[in-house]
């Protein structure tokens, strides 16, 4: 009886860690699409740096998940050899980059979420999760700062940049809620999503006020990502991301 | 006449002909000079320059461009246009006169053996 209970908990934990890993990996991949395309080389480097930070976090989570799963599963097989409906990332992270404003706002929403989430995970009972959160949170503080300053810069900038931020707000508004709607594995791990939501909203409100931007209205919450039901975009991302491992299995540098 | 009162900016010579932030391209952000202190107690050293829209962004860009490999503990940025450089044509009168004044080097004193690290 107790053994069965333990294995259920373990499955929830694995799913939760994969959720964290997948969300960071997919957003990392989206950011990496800007590499070589940003209008200014310094910002190209900044966003690529953030992509690398996220990739590093994803690796830590995948490595931990792999040890929990066993069966010769590795960080690489988790990242490169699963199919769409096995991915648990937030829909927000797989949305197309669109323009710079949309890319920035996506990053800002996600980084603020990560910040309050990792703060909560610092008190988690699992030492490994605490260690990963503790290492990652410094990076995330910087991501919040970097993307937040861009939100203000564009929102309180020219008429054109202001309008583009407003478009981005409209574009992404239906993908915010998913972060705060607990999946089974989050409930099982006693993640307090309401607490995260409250702090997230306060930070976003303050930043939008400074950026003279309106808060999104008439929101409908798309969900599904956490349970493997994705938008059509994820398939295209995986096709590109997994191409090498699928075509040349076990290829190494 | 204009030539006589031209102010020279750092970066006026060499690859960046336009120099400073007085670029004609509208989409070009101002140039900033970056100084990094590699560890506590050492001086900030000039490491290069980059483009940024404002000082905050210059610090962040410098962080991403120049301290990715743990090169620094402190960053200074200054917009390039605030650095006044001498005109290379004046190098003669500015620097040549020091050439034959070797007595300005402190090499004519005999130091006692006890004095180390000089």
Question: In short, what is this structure?
Answer:
The complex is a heterodimer of chains A (253) and B (118). Chain A has 253 residues and is mostly helical.
Strand content of chain B: 15-25%
Quote the distance from N terminus to C terminus of chain A: 46 Å
Helical fraction of chain B equals 10-25%
User: Which series of helices and strands of chain A comes N to C?
Assistant: HHHHHHHHHH
State the secondary-structure class of chain B. Answer: alpha+beta
Number of E-type strands of chain A: 0
What is the CA-atom radius of gyration of chain A, in angstroms?
A: 18 Å
Tell me the Rg of chain B in angstroms.
20 Å
Supply the CATH architecture of chain A. Up-down Bundle
Biggest sheet, spatial arrangement of strands of chain B:
2-1-3
Mean pLDDT of chain A: 94
Specify the overall morphology of chain A: globular
Which overall shape of chain B is indicated by the principal axes computed on the Cα atoms? Answer: flat
* Largest sheet geometry of chain A: none
What is the annotated CATH architecture of chain B? Roll
CATH class of chain A: Mainly Alpha
Uncertain runs of chain B? 11-24
Task: Explain the layout of strands and helices.
The complex is a heterodimer of chains A (253) and B (118).
Chain A (H helix, E strand, L loop, with lengths): L1 H31 L8 H29 L5 H6 L10 H4 L5 H22 L5 H29 L3 H14 L11 H5 L4 H18 L22 H15 L6
Chain B lengths: L30 E7 L6 E8 L3 H12 L7 E6 L11 H5 L23
Antiparallel strand pairs in B: 1-2, 1-3
Describe the structure.
The complex is a heterodimer of chains A (253) and B (118). With 253 residues, chain A is mainly alpha-helical. Chain A has one domain (2-247): Ferritin, core subunit, four-helix bundle (Ferritin). Chain A contains 10 helices and no strands. Chain A has helices at 2-32, 41-69, 75-80, 91-94, 100-121, 127-155, 159-172, 184-188, 193-210, 233-247. The longest helix of chain A is centred in the first third of the chain and has 31 residues, at 2-32. The mean pLDDT of chain A is 94. By secondary structure, chain B is α+β, with helices and mostly antiparallel strands. Chain B has a single domain (2-104), classed as Ubiquitin-like (UB roll) (Roll), CATH 3.10.20. Chain B is 14% helix and 18% strand. Chain B has 2 helices and 3 strands, in the order ββαβα. Chain B has helices at residues 55-66, 91-95; strands at residues 31-37, 44-51, 74-79. Chain B has a 3-stranded antiparallel sheet, with helices on one face. The radius of gyration of chain B is 20 Å and the shape is flat. Chain B starts with 30 loop residues before the first strand and ends in a 23-residue tail after the last helix.
